[in-house]
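so my prof wants the structure for this chain in the tokens format not the other one, which i didnt know existed until like an hour ago. anyway here's the sequence
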Amino acid sequence: MDIDVSTEEPPAQAAPEPPAETAPAAVAPAQSNLSGNGPALVIIGVIIAVALVVFVVSQAGSWFAPRPHNEAYLVQPYTPPSQLISAGDHVLAHARPELTSPGVVMFGPGVALTITGRVSRGFGDDWYAIAWNGQTAFIRQQDARPGVATAPPPTAAHVAAPPHEVEKPDVQDQTGFPDLAPAPPAPESGPFELSGVRWSSRPGRRDVERAYPSRALYENQSGHVTLDCVAAASGALDCSVGTELPRGYGFGAAALSLSRQFRLEPTTSDGRSVAGGHIQVPVEFRAN
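here's what i got, hopefully its the right format
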């Protein structure tokens, strides 16, 4: 059997040519641009962040600064066409035409009001300016109505009188004996109004905070109480509640508990005994 052995080598297969790298060539310029602009973008971002921080710091004072509690108001001269009187049982006059302003005096029903001007704000926030005890106070317009006065105004606050100098008795030219001064008048039988009083002790702020009614404190409610008191010879006061606003919170009882800490000097500035004298003591309870 003949075996044919071929010595010819098979034709070599051509190696595949690699694909042309056209995409990287197109992308290369973009990558180079990004790598070149990278530091510039970082610097711009830092500048913007610093500018924002500076703006926030500069405006923080105005953002967190306390806003003024009271707004400016203009009192226009005004005289009502007829007499106005207090329209409620408890008409509170304020130091400013605002409900949050401190109370100056409490009027009962039917008290004649001396109107000197008004503050017009509209939307049920109009006020009358009134003259009382040598000062100006403000009441809401709805708290006054035309009518005839049926009640006297409340007693003005007591003001301490200046010290009284005792005059020396005159000496008669002929005898050399001093003239006898007339006997002092007998003390009044009933309570008399005290003036020129000097306080020996009064409750402090912590005492008022401890006596503050719990319900009023929880509801952030302020109150005003006027105590009618009669002084003993030692200066101690026997008090009762004259006015209480608002009622139902326990401000009257709280003020009575503080009355034991009010004590007068036994004598007034002019040397009179305070025994049997009458005095009104205002007590303020402020929630804020």
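also thought this was worth mentioning. The helical segments are 23-64, 205-211, 214-218, 251-258.
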